[in-house]
Amino acid sequence: MSDDTSSPSSPPRRGIKSFVVRAGRMGTGQIRALETLGPRFVLPYAPQVLDPVATFGRQAPLVVEIGFGMGQATAQIAQALPGTDFLGIEVHTPGVGALLKLIDEQQLANVRIVQHDAVEVLEHMVAPASLAGVHVFFPDPWHKKKHNKRRLIQAPFVAKLVTRLAPGGYLHCATDWQPYAEQMLEVLSAEPGLRNTAEGYAPKPDYRPLTKFENRGLKLGHGVWDLVFRKA
């Protein structure tokens, strides 16, 4: 049945989600990390505003990363920027377990995780004008044209992100799919609350590490596009 149809007995359709649930294998290390480190570093979703000072034990700039995958980039950035706190949002349990392992191995005190839909986390747990930055690295490109509407970076979601950014806060998106990069540039450029920091696409900021997948693609001649916008 198409997800574009409904009947009087059907529940109302939800808005855009930041994810699609996929199955994934869990390694023993990830399972152990979830059991032993989850209670400390994974914050339960709750429809109430998060207190960053109470959560991290200090006053510091807060950056949200949406969809951190297996967490390698998140951990590297957090290690390189110890003066910044990071809230990673990811729905896939193997990725949560993998990042918890990295938090333990690298002794990262500036990372917390919420395992929930990012749209709802931003709506209910993040205070307006509270974020120094938002990272959206390599979101699902939804290659087929009929699925483009499922892409995360769309005008309503970007407008919501802008309300959560502090003045001067930044939104950094990256993708290796050129049609999505073009859509991102169009959507972000049309948002009146944002200004582009570059003429078009931005040079890769030093803080964003190259992933193994990205390195492999670059060697094959594939492109990667970064977009960095700031709240006006």
Describe the protein in words.
- The chain has one domain (61-231): Vaccinia Virus protein VP39 (Rossmann fold, 3-Layer(aba) Sandwich), CATH 3.40.50.
- Helix content is 34%, strand content 19%.
- It has helices spanning 28-41, 52-56, 72-80, 93-105, 118-124, 155-164, 178-190, 212-219, and strands at 42-43, 62-66, 85-89, 111-114, 131-137, 165-175, 194-196, 225-231.
- β2, α3 (72-80) and β3 (85-89) form a beta-alpha-beta unit.
- Mean pLDDT is 89; it is low at 1-14 and 16-23.
- It catalyses: guanosine(46) in tRNA + S-adenosyl-L-methionine = N(7)-methylguanosine(46) in tRNA + S-adenosyl-L-homocysteine.
- This is tRNA (guanine-N(7)-)-methyltransferase.
- S-adenosyl-L-methionine binds at residues 65, 90, 117, 140.
Topology:
Blueprint: H1 28-41, E1 42-43, H2 52-56, E2 62-66, H3 72-80, E3 85-89, H4 93-105, E4 111-114, H5 118-124, E5 131-137, H6 155-164, E6 165-175, H7 178-190, E7 194-196, H8 212-219, E8 225-231
Parallel strand pairs: 1-4, 2-3, 2-5, 3-4, 5-6
Antiparallel strand pairs: 6-8, 7-8
> Per CATH, which architecture?
3-Layer(aba) Sandwich
Please name the fourth-level CATH homologous superfamily: Vaccinia Virus protein VP39
List the total number of helices.
8
How large a portion of the residues is in β-strands, by DSSP E?
Answer: 15-25%
Number of domains: 1
Beginning-to-end CA distance, first to last residue = 43 Å
Largest sheet: 8 strands, mixed
The overall pLDDT average reads 89
Task: Name a few traits of the molecule.
disordered N terminus; 8 helices; globular; Rossmann fold; alpha/beta; tRNA_methyltr_TrmB_bact; 232 residues; tRNA (guanine(46)-N7)-methyltransferase activity
